[in-house]
Design the sequence.
């Protein structure tokens, strides 16, 4: 999934969740659960590699 597709999916899920949760009397518990599930699914992406500090940077940080 491209970043643009991911953003579009997240925007749609957020909009739906706001609509469902803002309509307390017109939304069922099922609607809310579905909106939450869609939000969770929209936020799941391929793992992003987080840069790890090099050995020398870790040693400096540990010594400080």
Sequence:
């Amino acid at each position: 999934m491209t970043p643009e597709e991911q953003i579009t999916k997240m925007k749609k899920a957020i909009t739906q969740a706001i609509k469902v949760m803002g309509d307390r009397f017109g939304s069922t518990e099922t609607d809310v659960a579905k909106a939450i599930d869609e939000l969770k699914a929209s936020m799941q992406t391929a793992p992003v590699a987080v840069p790890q500090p090099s050995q020398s940077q870790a040693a400096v940080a540990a010594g400080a």
Q: What stands out?
A: Residues 29 and 39 are 15 Å apart (CA to CA). The chain is about 70% helix and 0% strand. The mean pLDDT is 76. Helices lie at 3-22, 29-43, 55-63.
